[in-house]
Input
Amino acid sequence: MSDTAAGLNPADARNAARDVRRRKLQAFLFVTPLLVFIIFAFVAPIATMLYRSVHNPTVANLVPETLAAQDDL
Output
C-alpha cells in the first residue's frame, strides 16, 4: 500500500518522509555520545590488550642473540 493510497497527496508524503528522516537523525545524534563512550571504554582497551599480546619487543631484541648462541653450539 503506497502513501497516496492511504490518502496522502505527494506533497504530504514528502513532508512525512522528511519528518521521518529528521527524527531518525535526531535519534542517532542522541545515541552518538553513548556509542563514543562504548568505543573508548570497551573496544579500545580490548584492542590494546590484543595488540600487546602479539607485540613483544623483548622477544624481537633477543632473537639475534639466541640465533648466535645456537650457532656456537
